[in-house]
Amino acid sequence: MHWVITGANRGIGLALTKQLLSQGERLTVGVRTSMPFEHENLKVLKVDTSNPVSIEEFVSQIEEPIDVLINNAGVLIEEKFPEVTEEGMLLSFKVNTMGPYMLVQESYKQGKLKAGAKIINISSILGSIASTGGTTSIPYSISKAALNMATKLLAHRLKNMYVVSIHPGWVKTDMGGPEAPLLPEESADGIIKVIRNLNQSGVFLDYTGKILPW
Ligand SMILES: NC(=O)c1ccc[n+]([C@@H]2O[C@H](COP(=O)([O-])OP(=O)(O)OC[C@H]3O[C@@H](n4cnc5c(N)ncnc54)[C@H](OP(=O)(O)O)[C@@H]3O)[C@@H](O)[C@H]2O)c1
């Protein structure tokens, strides 16, 4: 299968990329800088997911029809009430919400998505309105809640595909920090199994396949 992943140079995206390559899959990854390794089944393209022009160019360079698109790139700008800034809000929205939505829309417009394609928006439990008690970042939670709405709307529109949000767990990455209980490899392993077994659309799941409340 052909998988497309954004933010593949570190963290969860890197772990997903390594595991999928070891499973014999073909990948096109979108990164702002470069990948730490090369592989015959890995095509590396540049993308800044906060920029629609960059997204359009990225999609135009994807050569093979897409079986699985993983919107993984994300930012966590730690701002809390009452210190939230316009800058923090807008950058969070651009990377965490607009980027994933535009990447799906552009892939659709350019005819890159296969019938039956699986579209995975890497969201967060911090974007769940139903289970909100607090947050480490107001812009992050708001942008991931909006991403979940994008998942629902795209699932309604793309009836011949699967569109879901997945919470990867609390993962030891630059974003998750050293206290996180899960290794990127454990999260990636779970996410890949959930994607392979996916048989429903318009749902919010965690990396074990458990349904989460919106
Ligand atoms: N770690 C957790 O505990 C946790 C929990 C819930 C959800 N998540 C979600 O999981 C996903 C991956 O998180 P992570 O923990 O692996 O984070 P990470 O280690 O901070 O990596 C973030 C990735 O996103 C890329 N990125 C950020 N802004 C970008 C942009 N404008 N254009 C292109 N790429 C961009 C980064 O690229 P650069 O290297 O160029 O910056 C990097 O590859 C995110 O969507 C995050 O919100 C993580």
TrEMBL record:
Molecular-function annotations in GO = oxidoreductase activity, acting on the CH-OH group of donors, NAD or NADP as acceptor
Which superkingdom? Bacteria
Matching InterPro entries = NAD(P)-bd_dom_sf, SDR_enzymes, SDR_fam
CDD domains given in the database record:
carb_red_sniffer_like_SDR_c
Name of a matching Pfam family: adh_short
Gene3D superfamilies recorded: NAD(P)-binding Rossmann-like Domain
- Tell me which family the UniProt entry assigns to this protein: Belongs to the short-chain dehydrogenases/reductases (SDR) family.
Q: What is this protein called?
A: Short-chain dehydrogenase
Species name: Fervidobacterium pennivorans (strain DSM 9078 / Ven5)
